[in-house]
Amino acid sequence: MPNTLFDGGFDQLDRAILDELQVNSRISVADLARKIHLSPPAVHQRIKRLERAGIIQQYVALLNREAVGYDLLCFIRVSIQPHTKAQLDHFQAQIVDLPAVLECYRTAGSHDLLLKIAVKDTKELDKFIAEHLMTMAGIDRIEPSPVLNEMKATTKLPLK
What we know:
Layout: H1 12-23, H2 29-36, H3 40-52, E1 72-80, H4 85-95, E2 101-106, E3 113-119, H5 122-133, E4 139-146
Antiparallel strand pairs: 1-3, 1-4, 2-3
Helix pairs in contact: 2-3
């Protein structure tokens, strides 16, 4: 498995395509071709190759969280007991069905998991913790950290 984009047979033109698509995935192939000085069929072919390789996973619309009613973004650190694969699998099976959970990571350090959730307000945060996290077997510790100010949020990866 290649370590980087360029180890996998992709070049600077592929990187330029990816850079542009990360900023605006709705850009037309013709406009993208003009920007990177390549023909539209060549750009289309390269995009399809990037998709087949799994480098481009999907295209999405990024919504303004607050504009659609989710004013509170919160990170929640969770510790589970016992530390077994079965307990981790049990937690994962339950958490994937919770729409408030945007992201979930298994982490190293003083906590086992880190959740990123979006809820309407602190009452909904309290309800989420009480009705979902506190009812799960094996949850040892729950530490919510509401976001006060989102200083930087991006989905764009730096390609080198």
